[in-house]
């Protein structure tokens, strides 16, 4: 299997916890997990697959640490790499900007790497999201605030999708 690095930004801890759960499912070592608050561009280079995770804050904003790291990702050479995205959001309080941060990261990488791990929007309750492209989420969407009982099932399905995407 390809070498996977997981890069996440977390403020309240949900995104870090989701990153750990994804890592366990994909057998990613903790040495291959990075909080973007301290990650560097050189950390990206040694991976074939990059998984980027962010929560959405305020009205559709990137998690604070991603505000600085998005420019690092935007200027990095990601050619030949595959990128999977995951995001945490609150569909009840912010139905018009649900998981928008993941969409912002997608915009930074979509022309630089092959994005994998798209998921359907069925089963989610929201009004709008920058993370929806061509009727699908650009990655895994988790709502730990309102739908935590569905998180494991959604992570499992996404990991299965990633494995298929990596095999093709």
Could you explain the architecture of this structure?
Strand 8 and strand 9 (136-137) form a beta hairpin. Helix 1 crosses helix 5. The relative contact order is 0.17. The chain has 168 residues and is of the alpha/beta class. Strands 1, 2, 3, 4, 5, 6 and 10 form a 7-stranded mixed β-sheet that branches. The protein has 5 helices and 10 strands; from the N terminus they run βαβαββαβαβββββα. The protein starts with a strand and ends with a helix. The radius of gyration is 14 Å and the shape is globular.
Distinctive features:
single chain, 168 residues, alpha/beta, 3-stranded antiparallel sheet, 10 strands
Oligomer state equals single chain
End-to-end separation in angstroms reads 12 Å
Strand count, sense and closure of the main sheet?
7 strands, mixed
- Range of strand content: 15-25%
Assign the structural class, choosing from mainly alpha, mainly beta, alpha/beta, alpha+beta, or little secondary structure: alpha/beta
Helix % is 25-40%
Count of beta strands? 10
Order of helices and strands: EHEHEEHEHEEEEEH
Model regions low in confidence, pLDDT < 50 over at least 5 residues? none
Q: Given the structure, what is the number of helices?
A: 5
Shape: globular
**Cα radius of gyration in angstroms:** 14 Å
Mean pLDDT: 95
Lay out the secondary structure:
Elements: E1 4-9, H1 14-26, E2 33-35, H2 41-44, E3 49-57, E4 61-62, H3 64-75, E5 82-88, H4 100-109, E6 114-116, E7 119-120, E8 132-133, E9 136-137, E10 140-142, H5 151-167
Parallel strand pairs: 1-2, 1-3, 3-5, 5-6, 5-10
Antiparallel strand pairs: 3-4, 7-9, 8-9
